[in-house]
Specification:
Distance between the termini: 23 Å
Order of helices and strands: EHEHHEHHEHHEH
CATH superfamily: P-loop containing nucleotide triphosphate hydrolases
Strand order of the largest sheet: 2-3-1-4-5
CATH architecture: 3-Layer(aba) Sandwich
CATH class: Alpha Beta
Helix content: 40-55%
Largest sheet: 5 strands, parallel
Number of strands: 5
Strand content: 5-15%
Length: about 200
């Protein structure tokens, strides 16, 4: 099973991934976590480019699109091997991030056509003003105007894909966590009504 967390910066993905992982392990599942970009050579290059002041220019966005697609290919075998071993894979981001952060969208879809489609995408939907307030503004993408556009793209994709669950990340941490567990429950054979 492949579960992905998506959302704009500051939505709480890292915290909620850890909470979900611990809950699944306590429930008897083996869990592996991955992150995009990876810690591999391509992932390190992506992280470096993201710090560039020109990172949101069209030219650099296209370059990032290609690099993220290449970085994702590195993850394919890893995800497959984990799933083959009956482990639940939880990822911090997937190709959906490229669809909302890079452009043009049709081209991004094409270069990511071999990326694995998640069984469940948990979109942590956060108010843009809260996102900017929570971020350290270390990269070019952490500004209100850009994030507003990204959030709208996320919600549009979520409305067209059955594997998406939109979680209100403006709520306090425990409520967000409970909503996430309820969304995952049916996939693991648990009853969502028993989750507090």
């Amino acid at each position: 099973m492949y579960i992905v967390f998506e959302g704009i910066d500051g939505a709480g993905k890292t915290t909620q991934i850890q909470i979900l992982k611990e809950w699944l392990i306590e429930s008897g599942f083996e869990v592996e976590t991955i992150v995009e970009p990876t810690e591999g050579d391509v992932g390190k290059l992506i992280r470096k480019i993201l710090q560039d002041k020109k990172a949101s220019s069209d030219k650099v966005l296209k370059k990032l699109g290609l690099l993220f697609a290449a970085d994702r290919l590195e993850l394919l075998d890893k995800i497959s091997n984990f799933e083959y071993s009956n482990k639940i894979v939880i990822s911090d981001r997937s190709f959906y991030s490229s669809l909302v952060y890079q452009k043009p969208q049709e081209w991004i879809r094409e270069i990511n056509k071999f990326a694995k489609v998640p069984d469940l995408v948990l979109l942590l939907d956060l108010d843009v003003k809260k996102s900017v307030a929570r971020s350290n503004q270390s990269d070019e993408f952490e500004n209100e105007e850009f994030l507003k556009e990204v959030r709208e793209k996320y919600l549009e994709i979520a409305s067209k894909n059955l594997n998406f669950k939109v979680i209100n990340a403006n709520n306090e941490k425990n409520k967000v966590s409970s909503d996430i567990k309820k969304s995952v429950a049916s996939l693991i054979g648990a009853c969502p009504n028993q989750i507090i």
